[in-house]
Amino acid sequence: MADYQGKKVVIIGLGLTGLSCVDFFMARGVTPRVMDTRISPPGLDKLPESVERHLGDLNQDWLLAADLIVASPGMALATPALSAAADAGVEIVGDVELFCREAQAPIVAITGSNGKSTVTTLVGEMAKAAGWAVGVGGNIGLPALSLLRQECQLYVLELSSFQLETTFSLHAAAATILNVTEDHMDRYPFGLQQYRAAKLRVYENAEVCVVNADDALTMPVRGADKRCISFGADVGDYHLNRQLGETWLRVRGEKILNTREMKLTGRHNYTNALAALALADAVNIPRASSLKALTTFTGLAHRFQLAWEHNGVRWINDSKATNVGSTEAALNGLQVDGTLHLLLGGDGKSADFSPAGAVSAGR
């Protein structure tokens, strides 16, 4: 565990994550400074009066005087004020790095462009079905540092590329990159490979790497090695098999579960289930418990969720599909006899929309 006594700490960004960082340091006898580019950030009313705060922009003097900066995932490291602090030798980390320095239980780390929340939640449900004390959080639900308050046998973390950029001490028992498609290109000016490089950090020091056999970008830079287990739609250690009109989850050729027994639907969700099962197996969650969770898990709100059905027309809410890759996966997972109407909106994040157009053409 790290010793922060006597350190001058600056936290950038409030909200749930920022407050969890404040609580973390206060519990260790260190009073940090807090800054936020917003005038009235969420959580401001919960900030202890003893904590100095600077609002509306970044305080360069505070940053240069700090020993440690804990940056919000939403703050790009390329921001000039942060770059200047880094050049001056100030250590810059994120809340997940603080968590990794303290965690005493195995960690399952999950990243990818799409499916992270579903797989993270599902692995957590598998552990709960086995009666394990499990902490689930990170980029979903509770901030990572809040999980330290629980007595856990296992941590299951959803991690974004932004969080991984400032994480250096992760030693996952099992880690996965579910897929890599264009996302946050406004944050990665050098393109997809720069974004992928941030994702690949999840494999560093991992005991088991769960890779997507259908997506070469999820492979470690040096290629698959003995640490790697694969999942995929048609190939991989964990794969799908269609026989006599039915789809099965299979592990190394053995039929494990008929997808008719699952409440999740869609081919992309079946591959999510395979990834979750591979991760659960890697950390020795009993297979029977994992299969039980697969048959009871109903999915998450706004993720390929049947909202209404009337007169043979189905309305599917997939509003959490916030990039082209996730929309493409959902479309590929649909079996439609009639006409498909696709409603899109929101921030394109500098992405190329042509793949989704190609999938939906003629449907």
Automatic annotation (TrEMBL):
Keywords assigned by UniProt, alphabetized: ATP-binding, Cell cycle, Cell division, Cell shape, Cell wall biogenesis/degradation, Cytoplasm, Ligase, Nucleotide-binding, Peptidoglycan synthesis
Gene Ontology terms: cellular component: cytoplasm
Subcellular location: Cytoplasm
Domain of life: Bacteria
Pfam families to which the protein is assigned, alphabetical: Mur_ligase_M (PF08245), MurD-like_N (PF21799)
GO molecular function terms attached to this record: ATP binding; UDP-N-acetylmuramoylalanine-D-glutamate ligase activity
Protein EC: 6.3.2.9
Pathway: Cell wall biogenesis; peptidoglycan biosynthesis
GO biological process: cell division; cell wall organization; peptidoglycan biosynthetic process; regulation of cell shape
Principal subcellular localisation of the protein: cytoplasm
Domain Mur ligase central: from-to ranges: 110-280
InterPro entries per the UniProt record, alphabetical: Mur-like_cat_sf (IPR036565), Mur_ligase_C_dom_sf (IPR036615), Mur_ligase_cen (IPR013221), MurD (IPR005762)
Name the record gives this protein: UDP-N-acetylmuramoylalanine--D-glutamate ligase
Provenance organism: Serratia quinivorans
Gene from which this protein is expressed: murD
